[in-house]
Every structure is written in structure tokens, then in C-alpha cells.
Specification:
mainly alpha; 9 helices
């Protein structure tokens, strides 16, 4: 298919849910300058090309690979992909609403627990991790849930 690959689920398992202080996040954020007319023109041309040749999921994957997670989330159609992109984009409320929509996928439950932990809903997150440890047949998911439960 060429240079752009489609992945069903980007970066499926997060090793731990770790809270960060606001000061750490504030130091890493960068202030962007307003776009010039030339930059707007090229952004519009790029988006037009992408709309012609790539599906929304492929566009989302491209933006995800570029590290533009919120743009990726806005292009993805699948709730799991949208949720993961919002999660990496630090929009945990939007990520939570996407993971709740995914039915029958234990990875979504794991990510849901992580989003709850990031929002300081520790008891709800621990309950999800505990349920995963008891019910899953997937050893990797059980291990990550156990690590997060103990954290």
C-alpha cells in the first residue's frame, strides 16, 4: 500500500498509569506562533490531498505517527483508535468517553482504567484493574492490570 500503513490499534498496551504534576506538563508544552497565510495554504492543500487518497482511519494513523494526537483523534472513526489518540493527546475526558463505547475489548477496559487514574479517579480505576486481573485470559493485559492495581 505504500508509505502509509494502517494499524488497527495504535500502541495497544500502556505499561502503567502514572500521574504527572502540572509543573512537569507545563514545562514540556510549547507555545506556537500564529500560522501565516502560506502555512494555511499548504495545510489546506495537504488536507485536500489526504481527503482524496486516504480514508479517515488512514489519516488518523498518519497524524498519530506524526505525534499530532488530537488531530488523529478528530480523523479516526473507530472509538478505540479515537480513545487512544485522545489519551496520548492528554484529553482524558474525551478518551474516557470513547473507551466506554468499545464493547468486548479488554484493552479498552485497561485504557479506561488508565484514563480514570489520570483523572484521579483512583478507586474506579482500581476496580477496573481488579476485574481485569480476575476475568482476562490475556496474560499481557493481566500483568499490566496487576502492575497498575498495585501502583
Amino acid at each position: 500500500m505504500g508509505a502509509i500503513s494502517v494499524v488497527d490499534q495504535p500502541n495497544l498496551i500502556v505499561s502503567q498509569a502514572q500521574a504527572e504534576t502540572v509543573s512537569v506538563v507545563a514545562k514540556t508544552e510549547q507555545i506556537t506562533e500564529p500560522e501565516s497565510n502560506i502555512e494555511k495554504f499548504w495545510d489546506n492543500a495537504k488536507q485536500t490531498w489526504m481527503n482524496l487518497w486516504l480514508t479517515p482511519e488512514q489519516q488518523g494513523q498518519w497524524y498519530f505517527n506524526q505525534g499530532e494526537f488530537i488531530k488523529a483523534a478528530n480523523h479516526y472513526q473507530e472509538p478505540m483508535n479515537k480513545g487512544i489518540a485522545f489519551y496520548y493527546g492528554r484529553d482524558f475526558v474525551s478518551a474516557q468517553s470513547q473507551f466506554v463505547q468499545v464493547q468486548g475489548d479488554e484493552r479498552a477496559v485497561l485504557y479506561l482504567g488508565n484514563t480514570l487514574a489520570r483523572q484521579r479517579e483512583y478507586l474506579a480505576a482500581r476496580n477496573l484493574y481488579k476485574d481485569l486481573m480476575e476475568k482476562t485470559n490475556d496474560e499481557d493485559i493481566a500483568n499490566v492490570a496487576k502492575q497498575n492495581y498495585q501502583a
